[in-house]
Amino acid sequence: MNRDSAERALWFEVWPVACRKPGILRSPGYSAMVHASKMILEAIMKVAPDVLTDDLAEKWDESYQRFENTLFFPSEGVIRFVNKHIRRRTGIDSYTHAFGAPPEVLEIGSGAGRHLVFLAKAGFRPTGVELSAVACEQARALLAYEDVKADACDILNISATDLPFEDDRFPYAVSSATLDSMPTTTARAVIAEVHRAVRPGGLFFVDLIADDALRLGAVDADGDQIVTETHESGTIQSYFNTDKITDLFTGFNIRDIYKMQMTTVDNEIRNSRFYATLEKRDGG
Ligand SMILES: C[S@@+](CC[C@H](N)C(=O)[O-])C[C@H]1O[C@@H](n2cnc3c(N)ncnc32)[C@H](O)[C@@H]1O
To answer: Deepest in the core among 121, 213, 262, 263, taking most CB within 10 A?
Structure first.
């Protein structure tokens, strides 16, 4: 279901019946119905954020068809997370310690596969979860090109709001530029799912756009932005500050957190992001 079909159901199924039933609504008038429809859709979004998911999957497909996030090199944040918090590469074929079996890593929003390739080559066993079918196709092509064997990595084309994994399975999870690329209500649901799927003491790396790096677009009732720039047009950008991070990541301890800004020489902010490594609390 998407927002358009929910709205159609209101106009063609709900209002005609409600307006005929005495005592429910007596000729509410068109503008009252428009207003009520908006409130109902917003309420549905709050309790069932997945209602919008199909719309957003389409917008992300369109963005990947324009190759806007078809990226090939891993983000510096993910490389730093692996080197600092898991194991450091010390030579061409040496690391600070050996893995037994490749440890599993869950990637939320695996996009066109740049981190899946990096993680597989760094000795992990990655599983990517990604809303856009087009991104998943691009990721599979990149993995094949980079000679990552089909059984060395899984990609699931689903929303991360509902993860098909048992509790406490993954020692590690990463999510780069993704939890800020969805409505805040959805991000809250995704974080709860990651918390469930990561084992106690497991690490979760995230990077998140900061609220001093505003883009172009209309801001909705929850303070999230519907992007109107061509880049990622029609998707949702939500913004983070330290209060929101503390609120959303309950159940995790913050191992480290940095805010990195890129400015012009005239101090105009071009980019501003948080990079956080979180640790699932024991029993939390
Ligand atoms: C800015 S892109 C980043 C992609 C990738 N992490 C990277 O760094 O290259 C944001 C990604 O989040 C994905 N996404 C948004 N909502 C999602 C959801 N509910 N479940 C899974 N992926 C989602 C989008 O499809 C998109 O691939």
So the answer is: 213
